[in-house]
Each structure stands twice: as structure tokens, then as C-alpha cells.
Amino acid sequence: GGIFDTPTSGIWQTVWIEPVKEAFIEALQITPDVDAGEVKLLVTPHGVVRRTPIVATITPPGGGEAIHAEGFTGRPLSIKVPDAKLWTPDAPVLYDLRVQLKVNNEVSDEVASYFGMRKIAIGKDEKGVNRLMLNNKPIFMAGPLDQGFWPDGIYTAPTDAALKFDIEMEKKYGFNMVRKHVKIEPERWYYWCDKLGLLVWQDMPSGPSQQGAGEKMPQSSKENFEHELDRMIAGRGNHPSIVMWVVFNEGWGQFDTPRLTEHVKKMDPTRLVDNASGWTDKKVGDVVDMHHYADPLMPKLEESRAAVLGEFGGLGLAVEGHMWNAKTFQYRKTNDQKQLTDQYVKMFEDAVKLKENGLCAVVYTQTTDVEGEINGLMTYDRAVIKVDPERARTAARALIGEAK
Q1: Do β-strands 199-203 and 306-313 pair in parallel, antiparallel, or remain unpaired?
Q2: Band (404; pLDDT cuts 50, 70, 90)
Q3: Which of 244, 85, 105 is nearest to 180 (CA)?
Q4: For FRET with 132, which of 10, 102, 168, 219 sits at 20 to 30 Å CA-CA?
Q5: Is 317 within 8 Å of 328 (Cβ atoms)?
């Protein structure tokens, strides 16, 4: 009830079985380097010595002459990408990639994948204020909090088309970013973010939610959290859409924050790291992230970190016939779609001034209603669009400040 939802356990992500030869590609790490105009590949083999030949083929978007490169497993292979077309939310350009493992001059295994040439960093604007920089250009990020819940499957979407629908709607609302909240999605969700063009802030799922509970967790629980944190970064790290890892949310299960933030940064220096979204900032990482309901506010500006608003909004509207239960929750009640949309648009208009003062991103709660929470842009069953998409898009794009 309220903001506490049905627990989930068991197998809820995609599972498949694949026949392979004795020697096969166990892992493929893809790292774009926009400044160098190249992409780096690291192939981890199974069943052979580490120094085994590999052949990589890159196909430029829209066709064109393929790029071929040869190297070995276990060591980085840097491949030049001439006149690289950069990946952005408005132009999500992807390069096709094929990697072959050669044993005795025969192809023992091959992997088909893709990558996007994009860079995320923190940089100063003309006033000396820290800004989020995409491909060396300032970008303001605006998007929804997205918990990825479904009425008929809880954590499991009914179809791939359903995953795509949510992302298409977020794009329709004018967003260029989404914060995936305390959940790791199946690969297909990130594929659609890569393909359709939506930046992702990826939360690490949290431990116990009581304040201070993280430090009191058994050592085995802390070790398990860290192990799964590593698995998340390694397992989702090839997606160009992911631009920030969020280690903790609102103090839930929080422990060893400075050490874990540094650990994530060392493991993946190509992305930003948010040490804690809301409440319990430990003064480390790339951003200072506050939560404020309902109206937007911003943290104090800092010398080395960018200021972001990790949660705000939460405007609620009950839609009869599309409610999960009678026990509902919202941060501010509205009475009809017009009032909801009016207040929503005003919040985004208010955020424009915050942007001028140094705010770099806003995250609105949230994409859909979730069980008892009725503060979604859509109802839980996705059947009713609650906030007017056209007016919302105009407000979002005005805040982001892009041409489209």
C-alpha cells in the first residue's frame, strides 16, 4: 500500500540457452572514445588461451564501407572510426559490430552487437558553472522516474512491444532522459533506449530501506550488494544510452558510500556516478542530487560537481476504473486532466529559472501509476494518458533548450 509495492523474486528477466563450441566468446566489452575517434574492444574467451586471434567488423550506419580490424583476446583492440557520427537522444546513431573468435584459422564463435559513439562528462559553462556535457557540448537532461512495474507481471513486461511503448511515450512527452529507479531491466529495454534515443540514469537496486540500515547489514549482505553492483555495470555497460550509475537512493541500504562511489568510477571511468540520489549525499561522485516534492528546487552549486534534481513532481490524479486499489498515494492531488497538466507545465516552466541558476537535470515522478501510487503520466495499465503529451512536450523541450 502507499508507496510500498508487491515484492518480486524468481526468474523475471530473459533466459536463453545457446549451443557453443568448446572455444567461445564469454564476454565482449565495447568502449567508445569520441575524443580519439575510435572504439575499444575487449574480448574475453572461454576454453582457449587468452591470446587467441579475433576479427572485428564495423558497419557504418546507413551502409558504407565496412571497417575491419584484427587483434587478440584478453587485450584491448582500438579501432579507428573515421568521421564518426555521434549518438545523441535526437540522433541515436548506432554502428553494427561483429566479432569473430578464430581457432586454427577457423571461426569458433562470433558475436553480433552494436555501439554508439558518445561521451558523457562534467564541464564548465561560460560562467564557470558545472554542466553535464554530452559529446563535449552542454546538455540539460529532463526525464521521468521509471520504476518498470506492470499490473500483470509486476517486474515482467507482457511483451517487448510493451517495453518499447513506455520509451516511445517518454520520447513523446519530450524527455531526453529517464531514471531507471531501483530496478535493472532486461537487455531489450536498454536496446530500445539505445535505438530510440533516451539517456539513462541507472539505479543500483537497494538494500533495506530504513534509515541507517545499510551500515547495520551483515557483512555477507554488503558483499552481495557489491558483487551485484559489479554485475550490473559489467552486464549493462555496453549500452550507449546509460550515462550515469546511481549507487544509492535516499539512504536505502546505504553503506561505505565514498569507497563504493570510487569503486564504480574506477570500474567505469567513461560514465558519471551519483553517490546517492536524495537525502544522504556523502560529498563524492560527479553530481550533487537532491529530491524535493512537489515543486522543483535545486542544490547549492559546488566547485567540482554538477547540481541535479533527482526527484520532484508527483502530481496525482485518480482515474476510476484504472486503479490498483483504494489505498492511494500522491505528493499533490489534482482533480482532472486539465488541472494536472496545468500544474505539470508550470513546474517545468519554473525549472527554467533553476536551469539559468545552474541546475543541470530534473527527474519527474513518474512515468506511470504504480499500484497504489497515482502520480503517473499514465495509468498503471497504460490505458489512460493523464498528462496532455503535446503541452508537456512543449514544456519539456523549452526546458531542455534543444531545437526539436
Answers
A1: unpaired
A2: very low
A3: 244
A4: 168
A5: no
